[in-house]
Design brief:
By secondary structure, this protein is α+β, with helices and mostly antiparallel strands. The protein folds into two domains: 131 residues, no CATH class; 94 residues, 2-Layer Sandwich (Alpha-Beta Plaits), CATH 3.30.70.330. Helix content is 40%, strand content 11%. The chain has a five-stranded antiparallel sheet with strand order 2-3-1-5-4. Strand 4 and strand 5 form a beta hairpin. Helix 2 crosses helix 6.
Length: 283
């Protein structure tokens, strides 16, 4: 179960990162946000990624910009107290979220930890994801490592940290063509996972839909479970499929594997890429 949990966390991170890129958040901002959120998880704030995925794209944009502003403040290594206005949205992810001054009490160690995650995880794993997406990557720009942490008090005497500007909107391309989710999305067969159940442990459409929604956000278009005919004989279903709203979602859930195993309401569920030649029993 521990390995499965680790796999779920990895796929959630991938889905979240790609979702930000698809929505138009700059790659650099998305990477910094991911580094901050992963660091929060190491500090005991569990299921951050899953909780973020449950929110809409506007809230996701606010969270990403907020994370970028926090990192900008930390890089200044100012001795000034942190304004509570710097983190207004992230605390909504947990019922009892500590204040930013408590979480970042040791600014130097916090920045060091986030920098190590950015350079060791984000610049490797997320870069690989972008390459698989066919995105052009400019070395030395987006993926240049964050600067090493300087000691507190290394600023010149009399220098003061620049104030962080309040959020003034997302960094979306204003000249980008409006995206139509109906006419411009991928074919259904490219947005599916073929599902198989363990014999005697079937799952319903609602159970499957709830599982993927709770773990990856509002990403499910529909779920189909194949019931053997005639239904009155009571034979349990053995397979089905889930259709997602975008083609990158099944790819990120599989995370480079040909098949993934999930536990849904204590029942095993296997998912793999949907093959059109097997759709004879589907609606």
């Amino acid at each position: 179960m521990a390995a499965s949990s680790s796999s779920d966390e990895s796929s959630q991170r991938s889905v979240l990162f790609v979702r930000m890129i698809h929505f138009g958040i700059e790659v650099g901002v998305a990477m910094k946000a991911m580094a901050f959120w992963i660091w929060l998880e190491t500090q005991g704030f569990q299921e951050i990624m899953r909780k973020i995925l449950l929110h809409d794209d506007r809230f996701l944009t606010l969270l990403a910009k907020e994370a970028e502003d926090i990192l900008s403040f930390l890089k200044q290594l100012s001795k000034n107290p942190i304004s509570p206005d710097l983190m207004r949205f992230t605390p909504k992810l947990a019922e009892h979220f500590l204040s930013l001054n408590v979480i970042l009490a040791d600014k130097e160690n916090a920045l060091k930890g986030i920098t190590e995650i950015y350079n060791g995880v984000c610049c490797v794993v997320l870069k690989d994801i972008l390459e698989r997406m066919g995105k052009q990557i400019i070395e030395g720009n987006v993926f240049s490592p964050l600067q090493k942490v300087k000691k507190l008090g290394s600023e010149k005497d009399g220098s003061r940290a620049k104030p962080i500007a309040p959020y003034a909107g997302s960094r979306l391309n204003p000249s980008a063509k409006e995206w139509n989710p109906v006419t411009e999305r991928a074919a259904e067969e490219n947005r599916c996972l073929f599902l198989t159940f363990s014999n005697g442990y079937p799952l319903t459409e609602s159970q499957i839909s709830r599982f993927f929604t709770m773990n990856y956000g509002s990403c499910v278009e529909r779920v189909y479970v194949h019931w053997p005919e005639p239904k009155d004989q009571g034979a349990p279903p053995l397979f089905g499929k889930v259709v997602f709203t975008a083609s990158y979602i099944p790819a990120m859930i599989l995370n480079g594997k040909t098949e993934a195993k999930f536990w849904v309401d204590a029942k095993p569920l296997w998912g793999k890429r949907f093959k059109p030649k097997k759709r004879s029993g589907y609606k």
